[in-house]
Amino acid sequence: MTNNDIFKKLRVALKLRDDEIVKILELVDFRITKSELSAFFRKEDHPKYMECGDQILRNFLNGLVIHLRGPMPKKNSKPAISNKNTKK
Predict the structure, then answer these.
(1) N or C: where does the chain have the smaller number of CB atoms within 10 Å of the terminal CB?
(2) Domain region containing 19
């Protein structure tokens, strides 16, 4: 199964339109146009067909996580409180 097949199946299963996929990719600062995106969903024998690389699929999956779950909460930068000074 190719990356194009995985991308197509996710698109159908999640009922995503091209503009939604573009927005999902923008969540991870990956820019792509609708025409570039449509090349991934064409048949392999079509002259404008393009293979979906690992980077594009990875960015789509990372953006999809943000789209479905929301952004990852920011980690607290303060150090943990030590219990050295507490008496028992």
Answers:
(1) C
(2) 3-69
Task: Read off the pLDDT of residues 69-78 as tens digits, 9 standing for 90 and up.
Answer: 987 777 775 5
Q: Is 39 within a domain?
A: yes
**Residue 56 falls within a domain, yes or no?**
yes
Contact 49, 14 (CB under 8 A): no
User: What percentage of the chain carries pLDDT values higher than 90?
Assistant: 77
Give 78's DSSP letter.
S
Residues 46-62 pLDDT 10s: 999 999 999 999 999 99
**H/E element, 25:** helix 18-26
Q: How far is Cα 47 from Cα 60, in angstroms, rounded to an integer? A: 24
| Domain-embedded: residue 22 | yes
Taking the C-alpha atoms of residue 88 and residue 79, their distance in angstroms, rounded to an integer, is: 23
Q: How many domains does the chain have?
A: 1
- CA 39 vs. chain centroid, Å, equals 18
Q: How far apart are CA 83 and CA 13, in angstroms?
A: 50
